[in-house]
Each structure stands twice: as structure tokens, then as C-alpha cells.
Design a protein that fits this description.
β3 and β4 form a beta hairpin. The protein has a domain of about 80 residues. With about 120 residues, the chain is α+β, with helices and mostly antiparallel strands. It is built from 3 helices and 4 strands, in the order ββαααββ. The longest helix has 16 residues.
Length: about 120
Amino acid sequence: MPGMSTHTVYINMTKCHENIKVYTVAMDGGDSLGTSETPGERNIPNNLLNLWASGSFSTTEACLEYHFMRHSGELGISNIVSYVNSAQSFRSNLSGASSSHVSGKLKNVTRWEKMESM
């Protein structure tokens, strides 16, 4: 419609499920005609969530959120979706990676690591 525009604001997603508020502002030229607030939610896409496992956590989401919070800083990643994509990329290219057994609640867990080249 003439005189109408839509703007999308990108905000990093840091959890598998987030309740959000969508704010709408209607303007005519420089004058505000009204605002509204609508509750909503956003979720990590299932195809990405299904790449993860629950491990020793009660849910897949809890495991993913824990590992995201633990490793995202060292990887320079601030979005949980980017974190899963990065993990999948790593998993699909283990060339040059070393493995070690991880002892814990679950059996047969392997940690893969790649040393960064200088």
C-alpha cells in the first residue's frame, strides 16, 4: 500500500524458545497515529534443534542452551542458531581433529577438538 513500509529488526536469539513482544507503530509523515503491542514467540527451527541431543540433560533444549552459553564466547558467536550451524559444520569436517573419551553420566561420549593454526 502507498505510504506503508515494514522494517524488520534482527535481534540475536540466545535460547531455544523466547517469548517476545512485537511493537507496531503507525505513522503518517512525522506524526504518530498509534502504537500496539502483541505477544509472540520465536523458536529455534526444528531441523537445527534435531541436530542436537539431550545428553545428560532433561531436554535437548537444556543441553543446547548450556553448551551455547559455555562456548559461544570463545567462538565469537552471539546467536544460538549460528552456534548450531557452526557445530554442524565442525561435525561434518573432522579432518585434522583429535578425539578423546569423555567420562560422565553417559557412556561412549567422544570429544572432538581441532587445534587452531597460528
